[in-house]
């Protein structure tokens, strides 16, 4: 491998090169990164008609002691369902309540992680025909053991109208599979609504599970594409994600059933929280919105205006339509003031929007796209607009700044796609490889083989970073209790997590964003199984420039690699401390797991002899 390390040889890699794609799939958000412990907190998941299914809530006590039903008496207009508990037993009289009382419990998303010494904020709304005496507690999954509890009392006048109750519970013990109970031994009728339990140690108090947030921060993502994926489209338009329903006070959000990945979300992780997540990660938000097209139905271009959300903008006469980007409105505008009331008076730095997801071949895509394009471009000329249509091998038939490129394939094909952009036109819109992964039997639930093939592909993208400006793997997260898609980068349950080999591969590239690509040429007969790239970048921590060579050996045999550096000034180069980092394992099918989270991870060692000529053994695979 010959690397030209002279100052003049390099070409800049876009600042945005490596990022993440967050989709609400596999319970990535609800029951994942979003730390809310209660599932179906407003009892809305069963739909707006009563009686409704309150799953996963369950009733404590049999019909001799308690009647439970849903009705439409909620305080909140957009989510009318509330839970009515008619308690028939008491502490005295002829119907004594069973030990522990009666009421309801919520097991969360396959068990709540309650940890000794940690604090949890429980909030709920209550109303009653009389006084209340409720025990709010975290218990084991069978209702036994008191991990933390608080007694909530109120006179009849206190709770005759809907009343918000807040309490902080501190756990006395740990249980990763706990549940939240609300119980009573007092006869009467009680209504409950909007029950939330949030750990108090979320990242900056912003609601993100700290351990999972840390996994994202380690990737140093320069952008975050959200919230889907198919989640944005919906199987049917009526079930697509709607940002307006996902902002404002959490109690007032209706939640919705995502009919592609087939689960309910309370939309605690809404449009605002996604923007907050981007800001917390130091990543540029990329908002993917529905363009009037779902998997099964689509809005005709002549009727797509309600989706474009245009407003007549009288001041700027020359711009007849004002495309409303609520992330950027100033704090006095309608949506800007809502954003301010949620704790963010400054506009979010939204610079990218993607019009739809995987909709290029749909009948109305081009027409609908153009409506959005002209509205956005005229109101916000600086916003970069991303098309769903692949322009890597032929020009687009519509204007765009970037275009989506998605690739799910087997390992051999993925590796061979390292050259996918070699012949792409150097003019026109830039590529956003917004979803890629090896899938199928090569990948299992996250194999070394998949990761190696992806690494080869990424090296090809890095070498083509004059036309490939953004890259993100998909999907990002999977809760092991709801694997809708395999493989995924980060695997978790209520309290454990690990990165798949594909996650670790992405970390090899985390310095590439904004770095300089060096000319590197490989002289080898193994071009079908060996790829390499070289970058240089300034480390902000020590102010030094570093060179990183990345090599993928997708072959059963090891390779003796001879690297020569041209153009290095021997007076300014420090060779000691150079390192080699290797990701491999004894078998291509090896995966990480909760019991062996670091079976396949990069291992770093010092390079023994480094000079302008370096010999390195690159092991098989
Ligand atoms: O990443 C999983 C899915 O794959 C995404 O929702 C969709 O865009 C693609 O088909």
UniProtKB/TrEMBL annotation:
Keyword rRNA-binding: no
Main location group: secreted
A Pfam short name: Alpha-L-AF_C
Catalysed transformations (reactions): Hydrolysis of terminal non-reducing alpha-L-arabinofuranoside residues in alpha-L-arabinosides
Subcellular location: Secreted, Extracellular space, Extracellular matrix
Keyword set, alphabetical order: Extracellular matrix, Glycoprotein, Hydrolase, Secreted, Signal
The EC number(s) this enzyme carries: 3.2.1.55
Secreted recorded as keyword: yes
GO biological processes: L-arabinose metabolic process
Gene Ontology MF annotations: alpha-L-arabinofuranosidase activity
Residue ranges of every copy of the Alpha-L-arabinofuranosidase C-terminal domain listed in the record: 434-621
InterPro entries reported in the protein's UniProt record: Alpha-L-AF_C, ASD1_cat, Galactose-bd-like_sf, GH, Glyco_hydro_b, Glycosyl_Hydrolase_51
Family named by the database record: Belongs to the glycosyl hydrolase 51 family.
PANTHER family membership: ALPHA-L-ARABINOFURANOSIDASE 1
Name of the protein: non-reducing end alpha-L-arabinofuranosidase
Organism: Arachis duranensis (Wild peanut)
